[in-house]
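Lab meeting notes turned into a lecture example. A postdoc, R.K., suggested we walk through two folding results consecutively so the class can see how the record format repeats. The first protein's sequence and C-alpha coordinates come next.
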Amino acid sequence: MNEKIKDHHVDLLFKAVLLLDNIEECYNFFEDICTVSEIKAMAQRLKVAMMLKNKEKYGEISEKTGASTATISRVNRCLNYGADGYRVMLERLEKQKEGK
Protein backbone atom coordinates (compact mmCIF):
# COMPACT_ATOMS: atom_id res chain seq x y z
CA MET A 1 0.00 0.00 0.00
CA ASN A 2 1.25 3.46 -0.89
CA GLU A 3 1.54 5.40 2.35
CA LYS A 4 1.51 8.67 0.37
CA ILE A 5 -2.22 8.34 -0.30
CA LYS A 6 -3.30 6.75 2.99
CA ASP A 7 -5.17 9.14 5.24
CA HIS A 8 -8.56 9.51 6.91
CA HIS A 9 -10.17 11.19 3.88
CA VAL A 10 -9.09 8.46 1.46
CA ASP A 11 -10.24 5.82 3.96
CA LEU A 12 -13.65 7.52 4.01
CA LEU A 13 -13.80 7.57 0.20
CA PHE A 14 -12.98 3.87 -0.05
CA LYS A 15 -15.49 2.99 2.68
CA ALA A 16 -18.14 4.92 0.72
CA VAL A 17 -17.31 2.99 -2.48
CA LEU A 18 -17.59 -0.31 -0.62
CA LEU A 19 -21.12 0.67 0.47
CA LEU A 20 -22.38 0.97 -3.11
CA ASP A 21 -24.83 -1.83 -3.90
CA ASN A 22 -25.07 -1.90 -7.68
CA ILE A 23 -23.88 -0.39 -10.95
CA GLU A 24 -26.57 2.30 -10.94
CA GLU A 25 -25.43 3.50 -7.50
CA CYS A 26 -21.85 3.50 -8.80
CA TYR A 27 -22.82 5.62 -11.79
CA ASN A 28 -24.65 8.09 -9.53
CA PHE A 29 -21.87 8.34 -6.95
CA PHE A 30 -19.00 8.58 -9.41
CA GLU A 31 -20.88 11.10 -11.56
CA ASP A 32 -21.21 13.31 -8.48
CA ILE A 33 -17.67 12.86 -7.17
CA CYS A 34 -15.66 12.77 -10.43
CA THR A 35 -15.65 14.57 -13.73
CA VAL A 36 -16.71 12.63 -16.80
CA SER A 37 -13.07 12.76 -17.97
CA GLU A 38 -11.84 11.23 -14.70
CA ILE A 39 -14.34 8.38 -14.91
CA LYS A 40 -13.47 7.72 -18.54
CA ALA A 41 -9.73 7.78 -17.73
CA MET A 42 -10.14 5.21 -14.95
CA ALA A 43 -12.27 2.99 -17.19
CA GLN A 44 -9.69 3.30 -19.96
CA ARG A 45 -6.86 2.24 -17.62
CA LEU A 46 -8.80 -0.84 -16.53
CA LYS A 47 -9.43 -1.80 -20.16
CA VAL A 48 -5.72 -1.26 -20.92
CA ALA A 49 -4.81 -3.52 -17.99
CA MET A 50 -7.14 -6.23 -19.32
CA MET A 51 -5.59 -6.02 -22.76
CA LEU A 52 -2.04 -6.07 -21.40
CA LYS A 53 -2.91 -9.14 -19.33
CA ASN A 54 -4.10 -10.75 -22.57
CA LYS A 55 -0.68 -9.97 -24.12
CA GLU A 56 -1.98 -7.46 -26.66
CA LYS A 57 0.58 -5.10 -28.20
CA TYR A 58 0.83 -1.41 -27.31
CA GLY A 59 -0.21 -0.36 -30.82
CA GLU A 60 -3.36 -2.48 -30.74
CA ILE A 61 -4.22 -1.24 -27.27
CA SER A 62 -3.73 2.39 -28.25
CA GLU A 63 -5.82 1.95 -31.37
CA LYS A 64 -8.69 0.18 -29.59
CA THR A 65 -8.78 2.34 -26.43
CA GLY A 66 -7.37 5.69 -27.48
CA ALA A 67 -4.84 5.45 -24.64
CA SER A 68 -1.45 7.04 -25.14
CA THR A 69 1.66 4.88 -25.02
CA ALA A 70 2.58 6.74 -21.81
CA THR A 71 -0.69 5.61 -20.19
CA ILE A 72 -0.23 2.06 -21.46
CA SER A 73 3.33 2.03 -20.12
CA ARG A 74 2.21 3.31 -16.72
CA VAL A 75 -0.51 0.66 -16.46
CA ASN A 76 2.00 -1.99 -17.53
CA ARG A 77 4.41 -0.83 -14.84
CA CYS A 78 1.63 -1.09 -12.24
CA LEU A 79 0.75 -4.58 -13.45
CA ASN A 80 4.36 -5.70 -13.11
CA TYR A 81 5.62 -3.72 -10.12
CA GLY A 82 2.57 -2.18 -8.46
CA ALA A 83 0.49 -3.04 -5.41
CA ASP A 84 -1.35 -5.87 -7.26
CA GLY A 85 -4.62 -3.91 -7.33
CA TYR A 86 -5.10 -4.47 -11.05
CA ARG A 87 -4.17 -8.16 -10.75
CA VAL A 88 -6.69 -8.81 -7.98
CA MET A 89 -9.48 -6.97 -9.76
CA LEU A 90 -8.77 -8.58 -13.14
CA GLU A 91 -8.82 -12.03 -11.56
CA ARG A 92 -12.13 -11.28 -9.84
CA LEU A 93 -13.67 -9.89 -13.01
CA GLU A 94 -12.56 -12.99 -14.92
CA LYS A 95 -14.08 -15.29 -12.28
CA GLN A 96 -17.30 -13.31 -12.38
CA LYS A 97 -17.36 -13.55 -16.19
CA GLU A 98 -16.89 -17.31 -15.95
CA GLY A 99 -19.72 -17.52 -13.43
CA LYS A 100 -17.58 -18.81 -10.58
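The second example is placed directly after the first for contrast:
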Amino acid sequence: MLRIRGMVGEVPVDLTVELDDSDWARLGSALSGQAPVAQSETVASASAAKPVNQDDALWQVAKDLLRKAGQLSGPDLLEQLEALTGSAAAGKRLLVRLRHSSEVKVASGGDTPLYSWIG
Protein backbone atom coordinates (compact mmCIF):
# COMPACT_ATOMS: atom_id res chain seq x y z
CA MET A 1 0.00 0.00 0.00
CA LEU A 2 1.21 3.47 -0.87
CA ARG A 3 -0.11 6.66 0.75
CA ILE A 4 0.17 10.04 -0.92
CA ARG A 5 -0.63 13.24 0.94
CA GLY A 6 -0.35 16.78 -0.28
CA MET A 7 -2.21 19.59 -1.97
CA VAL A 8 -3.66 20.05 -5.45
CA GLY A 9 -4.02 23.79 -5.64
CA GLU A 10 -5.82 24.63 -2.41
CA VAL A 11 -7.47 21.20 -2.10
CA PRO A 12 -5.90 18.78 0.38
CA VAL A 13 -5.27 15.28 -1.01
CA ASP A 14 -4.94 12.07 0.99
CA LEU A 15 -4.73 9.14 -1.41
CA THR A 16 -4.12 5.47 -0.65
CA VAL A 17 -3.05 3.27 -3.56
CA GLU A 18 -3.07 -0.50 -3.26
CA LEU A 19 -0.62 -2.32 -5.52
CA ASP A 20 -0.52 -6.05 -6.19
CA ASP A 21 2.71 -7.98 -6.78
CA SER A 22 2.72 -7.31 -10.54
CA ASP A 23 2.26 -3.55 -9.93
CA TRP A 24 5.22 -3.51 -7.53
CA ALA A 25 7.31 -5.46 -10.07
CA ARG A 26 6.51 -2.91 -12.81
CA LEU A 27 7.28 -0.03 -10.47
CA GLY A 28 10.57 -1.66 -9.49
CA SER A 29 11.49 -2.16 -13.15
CA ALA A 30 10.73 1.46 -13.92
CA LEU A 31 12.82 2.70 -11.00
CA SER A 32 15.76 0.43 -11.85
CA GLY A 33 16.02 1.97 -15.32
CA GLN A 34 14.79 -0.94 -17.40
CA ALA A 35 13.17 0.15 -20.64
CA PRO A 36 9.37 -0.05 -20.59
CA VAL A 37 7.65 -2.27 -23.12
CA ALA A 38 6.76 -0.34 -26.29
CA GLN A 39 3.07 0.00 -27.10
CA SER A 40 3.58 -1.88 -30.37
CA GLU A 41 4.76 -4.88 -28.37
CA THR A 42 1.62 -5.14 -26.25
CA VAL A 43 -1.16 -7.57 -27.04
CA ALA A 44 -3.98 -5.84 -28.90
CA SER A 45 -6.65 -8.45 -28.31
CA ALA A 46 -7.79 -10.31 -25.22
CA SER A 47 -8.46 -13.37 -27.42
CA ALA A 48 -4.78 -13.59 -28.46
CA ALA A 49 -2.29 -15.84 -26.70
CA LYS A 50 -2.14 -15.20 -22.96
CA PRO A 51 -0.21 -11.93 -22.49
CA VAL A 52 2.59 -11.47 -19.98
CA ASN A 53 0.54 -8.75 -18.29
CA GLN A 54 -3.20 -9.19 -18.69
CA ASP A 55 -3.93 -5.69 -17.28
CA ASP A 56 -1.99 -4.07 -20.13
CA ALA A 57 -3.76 -6.23 -22.70
CA LEU A 58 -7.19 -5.34 -21.28
CA TRP A 59 -6.20 -1.66 -21.25
CA GLN A 60 -5.33 -1.84 -24.96
CA VAL A 61 -8.61 -3.61 -25.75
CA ALA A 62 -10.59 -1.04 -23.71
CA LYS A 63 -8.95 1.82 -25.63
CA ASP A 64 -9.61 0.06 -28.95
CA LEU A 65 -13.25 -0.46 -27.98
CA LEU A 66 -13.79 3.27 -27.39
CA ARG A 67 -11.67 4.27 -30.39
CA LYS A 68 -13.76 2.10 -32.73
CA ALA A 69 -17.04 3.33 -31.22
CA GLY A 70 -15.94 6.97 -31.27
CA GLN A 71 -18.28 7.88 -28.42
CA LEU A 72 -20.15 5.89 -25.76
CA SER A 73 -22.22 6.82 -22.73
CA GLY A 74 -20.75 5.91 -19.35
CA PRO A 75 -23.28 3.13 -18.64
CA ASP A 76 -22.88 1.59 -22.11
CA LEU A 77 -19.10 1.70 -21.89
CA LEU A 78 -19.13 0.23 -18.38
CA GLU A 79 -21.42 -2.59 -19.54
CA GLN A 80 -19.01 -3.46 -22.36
CA LEU A 81 -15.96 -3.26 -20.08
CA GLU A 82 -17.63 -5.53 -17.52
CA ALA A 83 -18.39 -8.04 -20.29
CA LEU A 84 -14.79 -7.80 -21.49
CA THR A 85 -13.26 -8.37 -18.06
CA GLY A 86 -15.92 -10.63 -16.58
CA SER A 87 -15.91 -8.50 -13.43
CA ALA A 88 -17.78 -5.37 -12.36
CA ALA A 89 -14.79 -4.16 -10.32
CA ALA A 90 -12.31 -4.67 -13.18
CA GLY A 91 -14.71 -2.94 -15.59
CA LYS A 92 -14.94 0.05 -13.24
CA ARG A 93 -11.14 0.23 -12.94
CA LEU A 94 -10.84 0.40 -16.73
CA LEU A 95 -13.59 3.04 -16.88
CA VAL A 96 -11.72 5.21 -14.35
CA ARG A 97 -8.48 4.70 -16.26
CA LEU A 98 -10.21 5.80 -19.48
CA ARG A 99 -11.69 8.84 -17.71
CA HIS A 100 -8.16 10.00 -16.81
CA SER A 101 -6.55 9.14 -20.14
CA SER A 102 -5.27 11.98 -22.31
CA GLU A 103 -6.72 10.13 -25.30
CA VAL A 104 -10.28 10.35 -23.96
CA LYS A 105 -12.60 13.32 -23.49
CA VAL A 106 -15.39 13.00 -20.95
CA ALA A 107 -18.32 15.39 -21.31
CA SER A 108 -21.57 15.76 -19.45
CA GLY A 109 -24.34 14.12 -21.43
CA GLY A 110 -27.33 15.03 -19.28
CA ASP A 111 -27.72 12.23 -16.76
CA THR A 112 -24.63 10.29 -17.87
CA PRO A 113 -21.12 11.16 -18.93
CA LEU A 114 -20.14 10.74 -22.60
CA TYR A 115 -16.74 9.19 -23.32
CA SER A 116 -15.22 10.27 -26.66
CA TRP A 117 -12.00 9.06 -28.26
CA ILE A 118 -9.72 11.95 -29.20
CA GLY A 119 -6.54 9.86 -29.67
